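Handout, page 2. Input:
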Amino acid sequence: MTFQALSVVSEVYPLIKTGGLADVAGALPAAVAPHGVELLTLIPGYPPVMKALAQPRIVHRFNDLFGTEASLVRGTASGLEVIALDAPSLFAREGGPYSDAKGADWPDNWRRFGALGLAAAEIARGILAEYRPQLVHAHDWQGGMAPAYLRFGEGHPVPSVMTVHNIAFPGWFPPEVFPALLLPPEAFTIAGIEYFGGVGFLKAGLQTADAITTVSPTYAQEIRSKELGMGLEGVIVERQDSVHGILNGIDTSTWNPSADTHLAVPYDAKALAQREHNKRAIELGFRLTAQGGPIFCVVSRLTSQKGMDVLVEAADALVAMGGRLAVLGSGDPKLETAFKAAAARHPGGIGVRIGYDEPLSHLLQGGSDAIIIPSRFEPCGLTQLYGLRYGCVPVAARTGGLADTIIDANEAALAAGVATGFLFSEVTPEGLIAALKRAVAAYGHREVWRSLQVHGMKADFSWKRSGRAYAELYKSLIMPRRSGRA
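Output:
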């Protein structure tokens, strides 16, 4: 059985990306295709998206979509089947997908992503003669209104899935925007989209979707707690029978150390010595002149959620124990400044590159000895999966998807030959330093370190298993509707 589904998302790799959400959205169509799912992606018509579309054609025009003219434009881009919501007044702007060039959120984000959700619902109701999906899959708060428009709109809604990539971003807006969202009054209740007195886009999706998924099994449990539920734990607990933890995969064709053109020299698990060429390239690029010690890298947003404040405090100790540090990322200006200051204190021991650089992120995974991920919470995490794939041993906090994907190098795991990294529970400088000491000690034993690398590289974190899980979830929601049991 083959059926059609619509993915509603605010970013998708390689068209536009700010984080892991784009990687997941870009990989999901190919992941579910072998299981009979034709997944089309609905995305805002940002300038890079419109420019990338091959053979674009307008399939529908909105004369008044939240006060603006808009079109649905269908085309292909980088192998993806895409419908772009082309609304220049909403999306053709300088800056990022969610904020202006100075980093301030666009004040009309409620209108921009409300329009995306409404367009998705209209597509599902049959507004397009050529395409009518049997299921809608919404991602994070930006897609969260799609299930709400399906639930509260006219006609019998198609089933929907709401995926939480990061519950810390609820998409909250003041109550004054509700009348403009074109929903009935009963939608603005605690059983609907009301959230702390305002409108919650993520709450809307969690409350109205037929199924909820998170991007790792552990995160599905963690967000039931007050500490990590971010005020939405009540909804998660109430709907726990509909919550599924499905671990993200990675695109193993894009992230393949044996064929990665971003590396100085490609390699595989049988030729790990070739990684030294990439290590030399990192030393040159980050001016890490000190020789001999392991290179620890960071590829991350520089925020407290990612534990970067903890790493800054541990940086001096890392260098003192013989390690070197290469940092790639951007975020909190104070943390950016703190990392630069650490580099100034340790020339040759710490190098910092502020910004986003996809090719450089590949090189760091392909040449660094280890990657540090001290996140306070991590729904899934992809950088540790890239690290495992590339033989870049993760040193990570025991939370969310990090705990699900890394086997700690404790004595038993090392003896059994299954360890792949180093986990620590207390996200403090002391907790991180203890884990770094363990890693440096293991690095001094060549065979132990090689075992960690090889076992990580052998692990299967492709989309095969996850793609099957999503397809099975889709089918479980669609089949009752087809048989009339819904």
